[in-house]
Amino acid sequence: MTRRPAEGRALSHVDASGAARMVDVSAKAETARTARAAGAIRMSGDALALVRENRVAKGDVLSVARIAGIMAAKRTSELVPLCHPLPLSSVVVDLQLDEALPGVRVEATVATTARTGVEMEALTAVSVALLTVYDMVKAVDRGMEIGPVMLLEKAGGAGGPWSRA
Amino acid sequence: MTRRPAEGRALSHVDASGAARMVDVSAKAETARTARAAGAIRMSGDALALVRENRVAKGDVLSVARIAGIMAAKRTSELVPLCHPLPLSSVVVDLQLDEALPGVRVEATVATTARTGVEMEALTAVSVALLTVYDMVKAVDRGMEIGPVMLLEKAGGAGGPWSRA
Amino acid sequence: MTRRPAEGRALSHVDASGAARMVDVSAKAETARTARAAGAIRMSGDALALVRENRVAKGDVLSVARIAGIMAAKRTSELVPLCHPLPLSSVVVDLQLDEALPGVRVEATVATTARTGVEMEALTAVSVALLTVYDMVKAVDRGMEIGPVMLLEKAGGAGGPWSRA
Amino acid sequence: MTRRPAEGRALSHVDASGAARMVDVSAKAETARTARAAGAIRMSGDALALVRENRVAKGDVLSVARIAGIMAAKRTSELVPLCHPLPLSSVVVDLQLDEALPGVRVEATVATTARTGVEMEALTAVSVALLTVYDMVKAVDRGMEIGPVMLLEKAGGAGGPWSRA
Amino acid sequence: MTRRPAEGRALSHVDASGAARMVDVSAKAETARTARAAGAIRMSGDALALVRENRVAKGDVLSVARIAGIMAAKRTSELVPLCHPLPLSSVVVDLQLDEALPGVRVEATVATTARTGVEMEALTAVSVALLTVYDMVKAVDRGMEIGPVMLLEKAGGAGGPWSRA
Amino acid sequence: MTRRPAEGRALSHVDASGAARMVDVSAKAETARTARAAGAIRMSGDALALVRENRVAKGDVLSVARIAGIMAAKRTSELVPLCHPLPLSSVVVDLQLDEALPGVRVEATVATTARTGVEMEALTAVSVALLTVYDMVKAVDRGMEIGPVMLLEKAGGAGGPWSRA
Fold this sequence. Notes:
With 165 residues, chain A is an alpha+beta fold. Chain A has 4 helices and 6 strands. Chain A has a single domain, classed as Alpha-Beta Plaits. The two termini of chain A are 27 Å apart. Chains A and B meet through helix 1, helix 2, helix 4, strand 4 and strand 5 of A and helix 1, helix 2, helix 4, strand 4 and strand 5 of B. Chains A, B, C, D, E, F: It catalyses: (8S)-3',8-cyclo-7,8-dihydroguanosine 5'-triphosphate = cyclic pyranopterin phosphate + diphosphate. Chains A, B, C, D, E, F: It is an enzyme of class 4 (lyase).
């Protein structure tokens, strides 16, 4: 059965006629805002062993993915059509090997002082870091799976804090 | 227990000293190549109902995500540090609502005639299309999960075809 | 006959020696500013009929052009050499079929809180939206004409409001 | 009265379901292709006098606009969503003062060896060169009008040559 | 002999574990900041004579390099991975022929009101202006040398002013 | 005394009227081409000691600079106005600490199969890698000097090989 959307709710990025729009944040206050997102890529044990070995040597797979994530966060508004261009005051991208997965886990935290939040910047950083791991490992394992990528928490702004239950 | 990488295997994007590098494809033949990738975003039934309703009206959520995916495929080499810049001859991004998920499914197919493949372009198109859906729906559901994003198949090039088992 | 420029007037983007420069806005106040621009593309009646039919179906020609306009507004400072990079708080791009033209009319409204105005962002959004319509329709009509593209009004900043007579 | 589109014609950038797509050019031959486009910006006689005077001094307004046009041609596929990224072998942008208009005329010629044409690159070069003139002159004349921008001719490719009647 | 780093000093762009990070400037005040950088390119006397002659005619070599420097300053955060994206309020790039070098000297001054400084923007403007001179002159002299490129002074921010001794 | 340019020589990137242009390479053959460039950054012994220590730990300063250089090579045609956009088949960026300088040395080698060479790509990779080292080390030494940056050799194309004497 098909559920009806909740009473009075509407997609913020679509106007009354159904057309896409950038949400107008002119009237919002410029406040400190942060967002934290996480994601993972699952790979074969053999592939993970190669990444681990590389890290012992020089750490380049994880280093490259971290840099890619940081740089992607800064370009979020070029990729996601209705995102606002924002000055970012901090982007941290952390990658960890996870033997149990097996694979790599990524977490990104982004901060700004602006009229809108940085959830998309954090999610973009995670997604591009994971794509970069895929790129560097794909010659040994094309079957890797990226995800789940999700928001962990956000803070700042009129909407108040949110965190994943 | 920690597995050792398979004998004689190595990460193609890392040189003997462990440093990151772009793989040299100078000696490869310029051949027709395609790649197909897929992904999904899971959301609440309420959020999906809003997307479905919007599609009936004008289809903008899915339209915007499709355009974002196509445009992102063209910029893959700017995002993924060791990817080669390639001319693309075709990018198709298809989005479908999935009531059972509930959520949206994305599939991208990319083609080129070049010295290297377009797996990363297809995966990037899928990832950015899903990020765009997240962006447009996040005001009604911040808990959405992106993934799994994966390669379905590739063809062309010396390595021969590959498809997900 | 060649008119002399008005007494005491000079091009703001050129210094005393005639060299191009970005205008220094350091001393200006950060205030709310908006700009609205419009433009049109004239095409054959047959071409317009195809666009109209497409709109009835899914609206993609106009949707794609709207997204292209919004995204281009955000990249104005990369395209127009002496424009300042600005955070934008709102970009709205509206497209309408005009049977009398015949063709498509575009209007863009951009808002920011910054030290300089957003006229160029509004004009860039209109221009790229029109280029996108041209691209999607060109296989049926290469003779289309883009223009006139013009500023309709601006508000905010020390210069005060301006509107087309 | 509303005309019906010509029998059997369809928008190449829209698939059977009405969704936007990049045209698949995989099967097309890589051939030499050129396109030439033109446009103009109309301004007050006073504004034109300032541009003319600047040209006598150092030529920066026209120089900056020419560079902006050349650089924009190279980024066409980032701006126009369904354009193919192409290697360009030549971009020429020429600007002339036109006392009779009064204003500035721009002509751009682009060449490539590729699977698709460069009409959009030529039109984008013209449009961005004109936007740049607008930007540099706007402090003395906000009422300037950009257009008409149009394709003059194209050559190369299976479709054969086309030129404006 | 290998010196040990000074007591208590550390690289600001590397965290305690040695991983790269963007410095968090959230807690810094938004203040007016400027930076001035300089650089040079040394070429043969014959090459310089061609540049000088071109300048007399229309000044395009220096004009193009100036525009390239201004535009590059605006894209610094896309090029230098750990730089913050900043709104810039002014970018001035000045080029001078230097017969004694022989070659071209470049100086760039950048201003912003932001939470971090614009040294990298000034240095990037200088570097890209010099690369552009190299590009335009390389057909007559491939042996040109770029450098030294250095910061001349900075002002604003908690760190106080700095200028080259 | 001012030398006159050599008989019959002219700047390839400037037309007969002195205006800037992209060189037309349509008639050139698509051949394998490579270029190798080098550069250095000189810093205090203390600053170098910090970079060396970081390398022992995780190597991030050099890793980040290498990635920045590789990514910049791919964007050369966006930065240097008259460069042709090219597909690159290989970019290698190597960084070495030099105790004697003291500082860091960078070498970049770029390869393509195209109608024009990749000298600018190699020089851009070196320049941006050096800017990135500056950025990461500037908090401990603002007086660092970048340069000389120079072409070491090029091969391929009608002009034949060239190497620094």
